[in-house]
Recover the amino acids of this structure.
């Protein structure tokens, strides 16, 4: 399942927790636990929808789903970990 999440995130770039849970047909709490694996490994950044809307990043993530949590695939370039923007 983690590899399916990785593949999906690489394809879409960024997605809300609600959209991920709906896409894979599982509860948000279970999805959040799985996504934490990629966040802790530094492959995925984690944003708060409200913060994104305030900073006007214009990446389109704020309009997706009802979840306050947005995940963005950033890969692991040069061993630099993604940041947490909560």
């Amino acid at each position: 399942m983690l590899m399916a999440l990785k593949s999906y995130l690489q394809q879409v770039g960024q997605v809300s927790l609600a959209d991920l849970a709906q896409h894979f047909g599982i509860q948000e709490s279970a999805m959040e636990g799985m996504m934490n694996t990629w966040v802790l490994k530094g492959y995925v950044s984690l944003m708060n929808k409200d913060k994104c809307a305030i900073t006007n990043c214009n990446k389109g993530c704020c309009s997706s789903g009802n979840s306050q949590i947005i995940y963005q695939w950033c890969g692991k370039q040069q061993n630099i970990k993604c940041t947490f923007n909560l």
About this structure: The longest strand covers residues 44-48. Residues 48 and 86 are 5 Å apart (CA to CA). The mean pLDDT is 77. The chain has one domain: 2-85.
